[in-house]
Amino acid sequence: MNVNGTPYRSIWLNDDDWSVEIIDQTKLPHVFETTTLRNLEDAARAIEIMQVRGAPLIGATAAYGICLGIREDASDDALDRTCERLARTRPTAINLNWAIAEMQATLRNRARGERVTAAYARAAEICDADVETNHAIGGHGLELIAERSASKSGATVNVLTHCNAGWLATVDWGTALSPIFQAHDAGLSVHVWVDETRPRNQGAALTAWELNSHGVPHTIIVDNAGGHLMQHEQVDLCIVGTDRTVANGDVANKIGTYLKALAAHDNHVPFYVALPSSTIDWSISDGVRDIPIEQRESTEVTRMSGRLEDGSVVEVDIASPGSPAANYAFDVTPARLVTGLITERGVCEASTEGLLKLFPERRGD
């Protein structure tokens, strides 16, 4: 996607062909800044402190983190340590484990002297495939928006989203925002209700920044406004992303998604989840019970950053001093509340059978 007329992906190799550049998402929307990952610890920390975030981008960063790790030591023991370090960074996003497994499969049986070259090649393939996958997701989601547009005789389609599932959460295009970008580019009238998404404000900070940069009409709303808008028929459909979707169609996404799904169900608003197949965890069949939910630092709840009139960016306390805060990063939306899953292979029912119709090769897993 473009930033001030310059095309960017969210992660790329530098001209030296070994160090990795990322957009530092902790600085957005006030400052657009990139940072260089030069070793394993740089990559692991970037994931942990959310300089990079979003399940697909976490996976891509982990793939390049393995490249950086084995540049220093390509032995079996070092590869194991590298993978173990990265696997500890974020427990909920399944793309992390998927990417690590893909890299291990590529490297495990290769001669030590071939591993670095093979690792960089596989990491690049993972990134390129993510771009193609997300563009395909957007095409299938575009059909849903176009259908709604036709039913409204071309009037504006209002889409509500939660958190950030745009190109910043992937290598490019995004998942939930990919259909919106493509609908806008196709000339459809589309408007996005952007949940601010507390804590961390990833909707107000990142989704709004992406939509603004691309010229897509949008309005930031507080997290609890969605139900009100749905009651007054101001939301045509919801599209969100996911960090892990399990075999029965249960969906883990940023905390607050479940409440939006409940409101959508009560008001008969279609609720879609956009995801690449790498986000499906086929080993779990009950997401509410078995998806691990990350708990992060309480300061993400009690502190907030913002820009002053003089342009300086500061962080301030917003909560009662001394009060404890809990910070659950995700919740799980049961499949029964999900209208459909938008994947690179098409749209399916949020169920085991629905997923298997699109991915028949997984039968018997």
CATH class division of the largest domain? Alpha Beta
Distance from first to last alpha carbon: 36 Å
Instruction: Output the CATH homologous superfamily of the largest domain.
Output: Translation initiation factor eif-2b, domain 2
Q: Rough shape?
A: globular
Helix content: 25-40%
User: What is the level-2 CATH architecture name of the largest domain?
Assistant: 3-Layer(aba) Sandwich
Gist of the model:
With about 375 residues, the chain is α/β, with parallel strands linked by helices. The chain is built from twelve helices and 18 strands.
What can you see in these coordinates?
By secondary structure, this protein is an alpha/beta fold. It folds into two domains: 2-128, Four Helix Bundle (Hemerythrin (Met), subunit A) (Up-down Bundle); 138-362, 3-Layer(aba) Sandwich (Rossmann fold), CATH 3.40.50. The protein is built from twelve helices and 18 strands. The strands form five sheets. A seven-stranded mixed β-sheet has the order 8-7-6-9-12-17-18, sandwiched between helices. Strand 1 (2-3) and strand 2 form a beta hairpin. Helix 3 runs antiparallel to helix 4 (94-107) and helix 4 runs antiparallel to helix 5. The longest helix has 37 residues, at 115-151. It starts with a strand and ends in a 7-residue tail after the last helix.
Write the layout of secondary structure elements.
Blueprint: E1 2-3, E2 6-7, E3 11-13, E4 20-23, E5 34-37, H1 40-48, H2 55-72, H3 76-87, H4 94-107, H5 115-151, E6 157-161, H6 178-185, E7 190-195, H7 202-214, E8 218-221, H8 226-231, E9 237-240, E10 244-246, E11 251-254, H9 257-266, E12 271-274, E13 280-281, H10 287-290, H11 299-302, E14 303-307, E15 313-317, E16 330-333, E17 340-343, E18 346-348, H12 352-358
Parallel strand pairs: 6-7, 6-9, 7-8, 9-12, 10-13, 12-17
Antiparallel strand pairs: 1-2, 3-4, 4-5, 10-11, 11-16, 14-15, 17-18
Helix pairs in contact: 1-2, 2-3, 2-4, 2-5, 3-4, 4-5, 5-6
